[in-house]
Amino acid sequence: MASSKLAIRGGSPVREKAFSIRNTMGKKEKEAAMAVLEKGDISLFFGSPGPFFLGGPQVIKFEDAWKKKYNYSHCISVNSWTTGLMTAVGAVGVEPGDEVICAPYSMSATATSILFYGGIPVFADIDPVTFNIDPKSIEKKISPRTKAIMLVHLFGHPAAMDEIMAIAKKHNLKVIEDAAHAPAVKYKGKYVGAIGDVGGFSFNYHKHIHTGEGGLIVTQDPEVAQRCQLIRNHGENLIESMNISDISNCIGSNYRLTEIQAAIGLVQMELIEGYIAHRNKLAKYASNKISQIPGLTPPTIQEGCEHAFYVYAMKYEENILGVPRKKFVEAVMKELPPAQIWEQTPFVEAYIRPLYLNPIYQKKIAIGKKGFPFSMNPSVNYEYHKGLCPVVERMWEKELFHCPLIREAVNESDVDDVVNALEKVVENIDELRG
Ligand SMILES: *Cc1c(COP(=O)(O)O)cnc(C)c1O
């Protein structure tokens, strides 16, 4: 180590050379996209009965490839996972006034997708070890109006599916899995995404693989699959030709993936396992060292689970180190080169603010100005106050910090620098006190 004086106090940093950024688009992706362009059929979707209601050949091939590779009975591609989540919520039959028990530590769309069908997100707390929705908290939030559970496999670690499915069975609830961080991840031998009624993945730029924008809904249930197809593509026009008896939530939108994106996705999907293996190797390497550093706790992988390491999340203990997390993360960041983009950032404080602290819940103004959908059950006062879920708030305010850097573009020697920066700041923590 060049200097024991912390960089934030004028010492020399652990590393100055910028970390590499991944470019996941290769020759094969370009060829696949060009082949579609040359043919000219950039999208063949048609929003009425006929052969192209389900899209063109690349879209069908992409969906079939996921079915085959990951044993999903049905896959429905969409133009984003945000629209995929909305589709899933509609397809399981969420109606205005239905409550959906939801994870508060996730990307905003996990919960907002519920609001678009008039459903009301009811937030359960998280487990402090996996950061996923806590089944014990779910049980406490069940009411006669509960229709579904919306969970996320946060950072790529599966939620407690056995416990959650048992609760769902007991109370006759649907289960939706936001698996945006966890493609190709198994929970007790089964791929996540379709262990519940429906779930799926995101293909935006930041996710393991991407198609620019895009998403994929997965399910083992043929009826849910059909309803997803209707919502994706103007289902209202298909009601008669397909003899749909329950026409609720069949109004469709245009959530269609293009042929170019599907062609790129077909190439990209071959990369997922390699990326996950690389991230697991680096994560294990980092965790072996970080577990020796007082005050820091590396992520765990629970028995029967795999981890996709969308990000590598750690815990910080102020009680042991004697300075707040903010000061610590600032000091560590000064030891490492500045980042241009999120993927190149060694450390980020917390993850997101717990979703219920967003103004749409605080003010209960989501769809229109009159309080819909919260106003659907006038006898219930929906709670979104600070303090509602103490564990998630503790993670957000004090304990959790994450490393988006542990990805394809870095290697073990880069991880050494990151760990050295943590070690250096911990060893010299006295310089940050007072
Ligand atoms: C990225 C993400 C989404 C949304 O996916 P998009 O494809 O960007 O619409 C939803 N949930 C989680 C947990 C995500 O990380």
Structural write-up:
Helix 1 (27-39) runs antiparallel to helix 8 (259-268), helix 3 packs across helix 7 (222-232) and helix 11 (325-334) crosses helix 14 (412-427). The chain starts with 26 loop residues before the first helix and ends in a 7-residue tail after the last helix. It is of the alpha/beta class and 434 residues long. The chain has a seven-stranded mixed β-sheet, with helices on both faces. A four-stranded antiparallel β-sheet has the order 10-11-13-12. It has a two-stranded antiparallel ribbon with strand order 6-7. It has helices at 27-39, 57-70, 81-91, 109-115, 135-141, 161-171, 222-232, 259-268, 272-290, 318-321, 325-334, 359-362, 390-399, 412-427; strands spanning 74-78, 99-102, 120-123, 146-152, 174-178, 186-187, 190-191, 198-202, 215-219, 296-297, 312-316, 348-349, 400-403. Pyridoxal-5'-phosphate binds at residues 80-82, 106-107, 109-110, 152, 178, 180-181, 202, 204, 215.
